[in-house]
Amino acid sequence: MASVPRLALGTLDGATDPWPLLRVLLRGFAARKVHVQTFLSRAAFGGFQELRAWSGATPRHLDSWLMTPTQCRSFFLEGTERADLAIVLGQYSPANSASSGCLSLPPAQPEDSGEKRQADLAGKRSVSKAPSCCLRALPRCSRGAGGNLDALCDWLGLSKLAIFSTRQLTQVVANRCSLPSGLDGLFLTDADPGIPPSQYVVDVGILLGVPLVGIVYHGHPNRLSAVLDRSQCWVDGGLTLWWDFGLFQRIVRTSAERPFPQDPTTIWDFRGRLQVAIARDAVFGCYFQESLELLERAGAKIVEFSPLRDERIPPETDVVYLGCGEPREHAARLAENHCLKVSLRDYVRRGGRVYAEGAGAAYLCEWMEVSTGCFISGAGVLPAAGRRLPRFGEPLPVTVTLRSSTWLAEAGTAIRGYRNSQWWFEPESVSTGLVKEPGFEYDIIGNAQVVASIVHVDFAAQPALLARFFQRTPVVSPARSTSTLFVR
Fold it and tell me: What predicted TM-score, i.e. pTM, was given to this entire model?
């Protein structure tokens, strides 16, 4: 039985920047009315906003560290129901990196306390390391396009396409680096405008033994007319993608003809009905789509509100959910909406439950740092300041243990997710930290009713946490429900 065309598209090393190719590719498909559903292979939000803007579709998440094969296949099928093409983004593990003589330089040491804290966290609690990289002599790209693709390719039957910088070709040959097995094609970036595609096709075929699907040149085809045939190019601003579209179509057709593994259908029913109000506007917009869909499938009604525009949270709300986002451009409007802040504090005083991540968690604090040294007043629900790190890296996979019971989970529960390296909490009270591990107590702060986290949690991958949304049993007695809270 034919299924949706499905591709894995990933880098082979830490120095290749995949985003120029993704921009011209996704915008080109969108302009031609091709619905491409992208999946990030890590349950975090790096590149989330860009992918949504370029493709016109909300990115989804798959994660071989966090999710089971059955969960990944289920989330993939749900996400591709109306798609013309599915692309899973991430990074491949190099083949035989230990014995191939590849370069493997030690990572740079953290320069400041914020980075040192992230590095310590990765060493103490990371369950899944980033794939070893055989090419690290060039500066690393500031952000990758997701996690490891190897297991996902097997679980989902993906055709494999790789992204590779032309600057790495010499190192590959000189150090006899082996490419991952089973690659169906390769995209080159950082192409020399003086070298025609025909030469790259020959070089890649001889040196790497992989068909060349496309090449990204920096510059407009008019300036590259000596080497490019415009009929084979897609253009986006200062980027030109030359590609063998016929080869790409053959790879796509092959992937669609490959049978998709089938699993038994899971019925989600927590025997409860509730209303979850999510903050969604120009500031807050990063949510795991599979989590929201599973909440609805289990009986939840999802309603939206805007901390920028609305004066109050929606009536009859059972849980307020504030996702991550970027507050910098809208800081003044966010700070000036006092009515919404009062509504949120009143909701908490009445015993309402709140969950927030990243920027949403910072918004719950008394103060929120929207850029380095620039603070605005937050909602004032928690006695802390949500701070920005001046330097930040990739999201880190972590497992944290709750030291106190909340509405989301009991004390001792292990929560898995990705630590947002852009935010940290500066508490004003020693009672707000909820994490058991010494030194990292404030990665999640709050109390029985309010949970604010810099660890992004995909509830779809952790059904026990998802079920707690539907549990209406009070976690604190009414007499103590307001005394443990900080509300101005």
Answer: 0.83
